[in-house]
Specification:
The structure holds two protein chains of two kinds. By secondary structure, chain A is α+β, with helices and mostly antiparallel strands. In chain A, 14% of the residues lie in helices and 22% in strands. In chain A, the strands form four sheets. A two-stranded antiparallel sheet of chain A has the order 1-9. The chains are: A alpha+beta, B alpha+beta. The complex binds iron/sulfur cluster (SF4) (3 copies). Chain B: Belongs to the AOR/FOR family.
């Protein structure tokens, strides 16, 4: 199972190509927020850029907080999203420890699904898809 | 989302009130440059000076902003403090995408606040704040504080001015997101005159895209072209600073206030040297994968015992020419230190550098003395230039007060007009020859970007007035189309009219197919008309003597050819800007004319 990693953010030029690509291709919107990855400067442009992106937690606090199963745990980390089950309560975003879930003004959550569609759009090769180490079944895991 | 009308937010600083207006005209004006001129017709005043509180400050984006890569710029239009006529300036940063995601085609600021004010607008927010405590803050410091008081890190743009803007310097710039600027023509002073320290635009909305594959497919195609072509590699690699060496080799690099057009020292401030010795990293405007912004660093010892600080300073070709070559400062870090002070003061770096080059020569020739300059200006002496920049930003005496209004205005008082390197405004960095000197001297924007006259000079040594004139007009018109889309001009090799039409089609707005050229022509006329109505006399433009004394790769400048082209271009501008017969929809604003102050 793959996960997206913002592995080389020191190279980032702040072009937002990644977030625009995710919004366009995954969510079919024009946006730089409504995306699984969001770019911000770490306090003014002279400090470089950070990516807000899902870390593929296991267990995923957002999935645990979700009351409807709209966000479900992926086998090796991260979540699967089923939009039609979402009641837009916003619990997921609250639960994410790294602010990786974006809630728009209608409380629609946007979270990375680790599909890698953003990767080829990064001109500086900041992003990569990596294999997550596979996990034991439920009982053997650490939750 | 691309609508037939424009959605425009109007902030009135006098009343503190904001309105949203829907203004028709997409098919006539497209956006950007066309929209801005159209909005000036609606909100501007021909019969009032630039600093009248009612004059608008306009920011406009294009139909494809955010939809496609490099559609990443904003057009800022206003009546200029430099010549008291209509003008425009372009910048990127995050300004364009922030406006797009705030769901605005344009932002118009009118009126004057009682005290220093900052404004934040977004798709669901308007916030007008008293920031009187920021008076005198430099542009960097201002950005730092604003990031704390307004929301939206990562999805907003912060535009602000430094002391030069507050003090109404005619070439005060508007700093956009630290490394970009509405540089030329004094937009910063227009903000200063409105008591407007900063504008934050919060891009907090998103929009549905058309179903189907056409749009993502075309996006991918354009993205690939823009990230793989050689043309773009140049902007990304060394950046525009790559120009230093070739222009020097062509004897077209303005040097030492244009006393020379090349120097064996140029290598020391070439793009290659900057890249090797000072380049820290690249950055990009939002929505642009090219990343042409080059950020250099300087470190400075501020105390003995190894106490250092470091600064990050953006550089490009123009800043290096104006604060390096023109001042004969030939060490890359020293050029950056001067630029850093200019940045903080909030001045246009081209104008500031060229103005100080003139002042140095004037001092040398005895037209002025140290009583005026307050510093012993000397070629290559960066420490002195850094202090002079502060005098200029703060207008510390009568001399600097006048110099801050423009080099030629100062030269008219003190003498030395012959060697003031002013082509409309303080010159851009291309001593390439007759076509460029005419193009910039009479150009609409007084940067070098109206047309590629500099490139024409480098390729043509024949002296054919008609051919050169046609080039200026045709190339100018093509660029205007891109200025209406507000695409980055670096992408002009890729975004031809057909591709633009295809792009509009793919996002469900194919109506403009085929009319792009008409729009270019219409906007070209409209912009010149605004200038002429405000008193512009292209036939009276003088190209200073210095430009007749130089030698390029083509040999000495041909004064007769230059003059003939100047007259022909001036006549053409008068013709283009004449009152229209066929544009009955355009009510003239007012016929009262103003002469520049
Ligand atoms: S907002 Fe939707 S996805 Fe998030 S916790 Fe609530 S129901 Fe689950
Ligand atoms: S991996 Fe997919 S979901 Fe995650 S940020 Fe990239 S494009 Fe979006
Ligand atoms: S695409 Fe790459 S360089 Fe551009 S913002 Fe995203 S991570 Fe940064």
């Amino acid at each position: 199972m793959k996960a997206l990693r913002a592995a080389r953010m020191e190279r980032c030029i702040g072009c937002h190509s990644c977030s625009l690509a995710c919004a366009r291709q995954v969510h079919k919107v024009l946006s730089w927020n409504k995306a699984g990855i969001r770019i911000s400067s770490s306090g003014g442009l002279s400090t470089g850029f950070e990516a807000r992106v899902c870390l593929a937690c296991h267990p995923a606090p957002c999935a645990q907080a979700c009351p409807t199963g709209s966000l479900a745990q992926r086998r090796d980390g991260g979540v699967i999203q089923k939009r039609n089950l979402c009641i837009r309560c916003g619990k997921c975003a609250e639960a994410c420890p790294v602010d990786a879930i974006f809630l728009d003004h209608l409380v629609n959550p946007y979270v990375c699904i680790h599909c890698g569609q953003c990767v080829p759009y990064c001109p500086h090769d900041c992003l990569e898809l990596v294999d997550l180490p596979s996990r034991e079944e439920e009982e053997g895991s650490d939750d | 989302m691309i609508r037939d009308f424009f959605r425009v937010m109007v902030v009135d600083l006098t009343t503190g009130k904001t309105r949203l207006k829907e203004i028709p005209g997409r098919a006539e004006y497209l956006g950007g440059s066309g929209l801005a001129a159209h909005l000036f017709r609606e909100f501007g005043h021909i019969d009032r000076d630039w600093d009248d509180p009612e004059q608008p400050l306009i920011f406009a984006i294009g139909p494809l902003t955010g939809y496609f890569p490099l559609m990443s710029k904003t057009c800022c239009a206003f009546r200029s403090p430099y010549h008291n006529q209509y003008t425009e300036s372009y910048a990127g940063g995050k300004s364009a995408l922030s406006l797009r995601f705030a769901d605005l085609d344009a932002l118009v600021v009118t009126g004057k606040a009682k005290r220093l004010t900052a404004v934040c607008v977004g798709s669901r927010l308007v916030d007008v704040r008293d920031v009187e405590y920021m008076r005198g803050f430099d542009a960097i410091q201002t950005g730092r504080v604003l990031r704390k008081i307004f929301p939206g890190s990562g999805r907003r743009s912060i535009m602000r001015i430094g002391p030069a803007g507050e003090n109404l310097s005619a070439y005060a710039c508007i700093n956009v997101d630290t490394f970009r600027h509405f540089g030329r023509m004094g937009g910063g002073a227009v903000m200063g005159a409105k008591n407007l320290k900063a504008i934050c635009v919060l891009g907090d909305r998103g929009f549905d895209l058309p179903e189907g594959k056409a749009y993502p497919k075309l996006y991918k195609h354009i993205f690939e072209q823009l990230t793989t072509t050689e043309m773009m590699a140049k902007y990304h690699g060394l950046g525009t600073a790559v120009n230093i060496n070739p222009l020097n080799a062509l004897k077209s690099l303005p040097w030492k206030n244009l006393q020379q057009t090349s120097s064996p020292e140029a290598e020391k401030i070439s793009g290659e040297t900057f890249a090797d010795d000072t380049l820290l990293r690249n950055a990009a405007c939002a929505g642009c994968p090219v990343g042409c912004i080059h950020v250099g660093f300087v470190r400075e010892q501020f105390q003995t015992n190894n106490q250092y600080l470091y600064r990050q300073v953006g550089y490009d070709y123009e800043p290096i020419f104006s604060c390096g070559g023109m001042l004969e400062v030939t060490e890359a870090p020293e050029v950056l230190r001067i630029l850093d002070v200019i940045e903080k003061e909030g001045l246009d770096c081209m104008s500031a550098g060229v103005a100080l080059a003139w002042a140095t020569e004037a001092l040398e020739k005895g037209a002025i003395s140290e009583n005026e300059t307050l510093e012993p200006l000397k070629w290559g002496d960066s420490e002195t230039y850094m202090r002079a920049v502060e005098h200029l930003g703060r207008q510390d005496n009568d001399f600097y007060r006048l110099l801050a209004q423009g080099t030629m205005k100062c030269a008219k008082r003190y003498g030395g007009e012959d060697y003031a390197c002013v082509l409309g405004q303080e010159m851009a960095g291309y001593a390439t020859g007759e076509v460029f000197f005419v193009a910039e001297g009479l150009g609409f924007r007084h940067s070098h970007l109206d047309s590629g006259g500099y490139a024409y000079d480098q390729k043509h040594d024949e002296k054919d007035v008609d051919k050169a004139l046609n080039f200026l007009l045709q190339d100018g018109r093509e660029r205007i189309v891109l200025n209406c889309m507000v695409g980055c001009l670096f992408s002009r090799g890729v975004y031809k009219d057909d591709l633009l039409a295809e792009a509009l089609e793919s996002v469900g707005y194919g109506e403009l197919n085929g009319s792009m050229e008409d729009i270019g022509r219409r906007v070209q006329r409209m912009r010149w008309r605004l200038r002429l109505e405000m008193g512009y006399r292209p036939d009276e433009v003088v190209i200073p003597k210095r430009y007749t004394e130089i030698t390029t790769w083509k040999g000495p400048v041909d004064v007769d050819y230059m003059d003939a082209l100047r007259r022909a271009y001036a006549a053409k501008i008068m013709e283009m800007g004449a009152p229209p017969e066929d544009e009955g929809t355009q009510a003239p604003l007012s016929t009262a004319k103003k002469t520049p102050s």
